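User: Mind token order:
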Amino acid sequence: MSRATTPPPAALTAVVGPVEARLQSLFDDEITQWSAVDPDLVLPLQSLRAFVLGGGKRLRPAFCHWAFIGAGGEPGAATVIDSGAAMELLHAFALIHDDIMDGSETRRGASTVHTEFSAEHRAGAWNGEARRFGEGVAILIGDLAEVFADRLMISSPPAAFGAWSQLKIEVNIGQYLDVLGAARGGTDLETSRRIAHYKSGKYTIERPLHVGVALVDRLDEFRDQLSAYGSPLGEAFQLRDDILGTFGDEARTGKPVGDDLREGKPTPMLAIARDNSSAEQLQLLTRVGDSDLTADEIQELQKVVVDTGARDQIERTIAELTDTAIDALDGLAFDTEAIGALIQLAHYVSERDL
């Protein structure tokens, strides 16, 4: 089922420019510094710069920004721009490592970082195994992104750095649960929802909101109400991601159709499909997690997800969670511009097609 392209709202696009300018400045400085030490250090830094600036929706900076503005922060303040840039760097760290764990060859329509450096190794006919070299370099590049992110956050208020640290812990915990679920296979609905909550939901929406208000020292005042908005919306975001990972258009998502099926992602949608399957359908679902799935087999699995009602159920859940999140904004003591922006962002993250 095709869906119309969902354009990014003004609440998102307004945040992109300052954050990307800060990232560009950071990379320019780092490349200048380290190229003087050794020219070989330019390539990994350029690779990280291309990865960070070459795509991404900038959702995390947007949620941080509008929480900051809503709590009384000054528009254009360096502290919230630095925090947004840090979140994009941390996101790069997570994605680069995630691609290694999943064995993904493409991201945003381009070669993944580990694939890029494996090809560099083969082209140079260097010693050792190209795959191990590529993965090793990608791990280091991901680690470097995380170090740069921390450096941007280090001078933030203690409450903001505390929320930032909790965000980092949660994304790693969620990633472990995701890897474990894929290895075990057949993850139940409760466990798959918990994975989504920690791996993506909290880290994409709830914690960036907390960081934003903590930058103006108002976390205690707004924490609970922002969680009531951010937690269900974070789940809706991940559920939409799951649909895109199974049914998404490669031209829009930049990843092969059905990639989550090949990787065996333990999603709520697949848990529902298993619960509702006939014996024949359940037998087909045992193929989930097979990296050699053909295009025809992907279509067969997609049909099972649709025929069992799993996709429709997830769509209904997304709509319900989005409504719950928007309702939680009632009575939030933010200015009308920030409330409007959070409503725009809620609709975008739950309806997007990439």
